[in-house]
Each structure stands twice: as structure tokens, then as C-alpha cells.
Amino acid sequence: MNIWTEKFVLPQSTIDKWKDRYSDDYFLTVKEDKKLGAHYTGYHRNNEFVDKELLSTYVPKLKNVLDKFGLSGLFSYSSIWGQYYKKEMNAVITPHSHFNELKNIISWIHFLDVPDQKCFYFLVGDEKIYPDTQGQFDLMFYPSFAMHGVDKLIHAKDRLVIVGNISKLL
User: Fold this and answer.
1) For labelling, which of 51, 87, 141, 158 has a CA lying 20 to 30 Å from the CA of 71?
2) What pTM was computed for the model?
């Protein structure tokens, strides 16, 4: 399901700042099913909170990657959010896709501060497939229709990823 991966290194000071920002209760999401835990995410705040720093960091990179494939048309890159997991919160992200809007064509995830444990997976039928390219600074692109999820963090105290969708302007 992985379309493209490359390393995109950011300074540790930026990662620390984003961990601090996204650990605010404003971003806390507690699952109705308590077995699924809780985590911090900007996803549910995406319509009211635009993280301009994420936009300025990622939009040039996203455009550059699309240009490599000859896709330099009219796209929106504004659907970007941070996701911060802490081990004690026991977060599990159940399988889902980002193709809930037909305009979402490519989704991406940037693994910033991640454990050796591979948490992110694609779901193909009943099989979980864990991409090898989910180490620190891996920026991975995949089709928005790809079912994916995140396992509970076991082998580290926390995990920070930045996630987004690239959407075709209709």
C-alpha cells in the first residue's frame, strides 16, 4: 500500500515543541470504548484549528513529492494534524481509511518520534501488514482508500506522528 517513502529529518527542538503542543487537553481524544484508550490528536480539531507551523513545514515537501509523479495540479494540503500517543493512555486506533471524502486521494504519515515497535499497519482482508518504513523521520505516502490502524504502544513511553491528506480541489 506504500506509494512512496523518503526520509524527512526535522530538528529535535521542533519535535519537542510539537509534543508539548499536542499534549494539551484541547487535543485529547478519549474513546467511547474505554478498551481503545485515549490519545492526543488534531484530527477532530482540523476544522477549527489550523496548525500554520505544520502547513509551512509540510506543504513544500508534499508539493515536491507530487511533482516527482507529475502531479502538480490543483491540490489542497491543509488537512494536516499531529497525533501524540503516551504509553499509559493505551491508545488503539481501529482500522479505517481516509477515503471518507472522495476528494482525498493520497494520505501520508511522518514518523517523528517513534519506538522500534511497529505500531502502524495496513489491513488487507484480515491480515495486518506492518510496513518496514516506519522508523524515525520516514515520510510515507499511501492511497487514501487503504485501510490502516495503530496498535497499542508497548515498548516506549510515547510516539509522535504527523498525518495528513492530499485532496484534489474539485
Assistant:
1) 51
2) 0.94
